Amino acid sequence: MYQVILLDLDGTLTDPGIGITNSVAYALKKYQIQVEDRSELYRFIGPPLIESFESFYGFSREQAVEAVGFYREYYRDKGIYENRVYEGIPKLLERLRSAGKTVILATSKPEEFAVRILQHFDLLPYFDVTAGASMDETRTAKAEVIAYGLRKAGITDRAGCIMIGDRKHDILGAKKEGIASMGVLFGYGDRKELMEAGADLIAGDVEEIGRLLGLQEGKTKPGKREADL
Fold this sequence. Notes:
The chain has helices at 17-29, 49-57, 61-75, 89-98, 111-120, 142-153, 168-176, 191-197, 206-212; strands at residues 4-7, 14-15, 84-85, 102-110, 129-133, 161-165, 180-184, 201-203. The chain is α/β, with parallel strands linked by helices. Helix 5 links the parallel strand 4 (102-110) and strand 5 (129-133). Helix 4 (89-98) runs parallel beside helix 9.
């Protein structure tokens, strides 16, 4: 029923837990903020970074922008690769391509970094379009990224579009842009968060994504978060 599939990156295609939390911790140290429990930083995975520094640590807009700069000092060459692809994702992408779907990456991560990650894990060929945030922070909200991705793909009829992601921002962004949404439970959100945001569908694992999209069933499921090991 869905011809255009938009996919989030962090917590949906890959588990970026180590790289993102290391990068956030690096930035926070610049402000003499020490975080003992890594799990406290999982909430940074998904939302725009400026918004997260403002909301979670009370930074001013200027401080948040500066903190993102520090974050990127670590992330650009090291944190970006402290990442892994969830088991079953390459097979899912293969099935989407075989089924003739238009596949769009829609991430709040800067597009430059997102493309490098897809290239690193040999996932870039599966995507018709990659859409991410802008480095100058003029495009960060998930709704903005979704709209941008659909424009790049030349999609005007949104009836057959669905956004798949692990956080409420993916669901709320899809709603704002008038498209369907699917929440996944193997990332960094949970069922309560996704249901309250209004997800149309919920997938417990990668195999279930395929079933809900009407694709041939696979056998694999995502493994445990690397950040939890």
